[in-house]
Specification:
230 residues, alpha+beta, 2 domains, four-stranded antiparallel beta sheet, 44% helix, globular
Length: 230
């Protein structure tokens, strides 16, 4: 491997989300402007809906831009990092661009991060590069673990860095962050130095994650049963 990039399917999915939400926002804005000329109340309500879609569009744009912009080039004795600010869902990170010698790398650190919101739960695995100087560089995260829509890839980057630098991958266990509103508004990652959760708590969170991941399948089965019953 000479370079790492976000898997193509994830980049294309991000682009699809941007195009879809962008088209919805434009269509809603045009419709709201037209309705305002005939019904002020309905028009204002539609403007509020348009603002909500626009906010989601900005969120998806940030994530898609990170997926298309993230890449790491592997050289014989060093790695060249280009990590966008939006590489993490629940962290406010700066852009990171640097060339780091493998000899300066101390370890790869990783942990599971659970987020609960509205009775549902999501699990992701975050990865960070710990330099021998003590500096911590968040690489990104594999998302949606335990579901049919898991997005993985950062683990591949972490493994390649560990192999080239001949360093260990240290598992820090599991921590729980703030889920906010569906991990979109008000979500926050736990501190990197947070203690790992007890085994019983981890098991409960995994069960909630598995149940959340099964919800789409349950919904489809219910729809099929209703159709067949009708």
């Amino acid at each position: 491997m000479d370079a790492y990039r976000t898997p193509l399917d994830q980049r294309l999915l991000g682009a699809f989300g941007v195009i879809t939400l962008g088209a919805m926002a434009l269509g809603m804005a045009w419709l709201a402007a037209w309705v305002l000329t005939t019904n002020m109340g309905a028009g204002l309500f539609m403007l509020a809906c348009t603002a909500g879609i626009g906010w989601l569009f900005a969120y998806v744009w940030r994530d898609a831009a990170a997926k298309w912009g993230a890449h790491v080039e592997f050289e014989a004795a060093r790695a060249v990092f280009h990590l966008p600010a939006g590489r993490a869902l629940t962290r406010q990170l700066p852009n990171f661009g640097a060339t780091i010698e493998y000899a300066a790398m101390g370890a790869i650190e990783t942990r599971l991060e659970a987020y609960r919101s509205m009775g549902m739960a999501a699990m992701q695995r975050a990865y960070a590069l710990r330099l021998k100087s003590g500096e911590l560089i968040i690489l990104g995260e594999d998302r949606g673990l335990g579901s049919s829509v898991a997005q993985v890839g950062i683990g591949v980057l972490a493994a390649e860095l560990a192999r080239r630098a001949a360093i260990e991958i240290t598992d820090l266990g599991m921590a729980e962050g703030k889920g906010g509103m569906l991990m979109v508004s008000g979500a926050a990652a736990p501190g990197w130095d947070s203690a790992s959760l007890p085994d019983a708590a981890q098991a409960r969170l995994w069960r909630q994650v598995m149940w959340t991941g099964a919800l789409p399948i349950v919904a489809i089965l219910l729809m099929l049963m209703m159709q067949s019953g009708g």
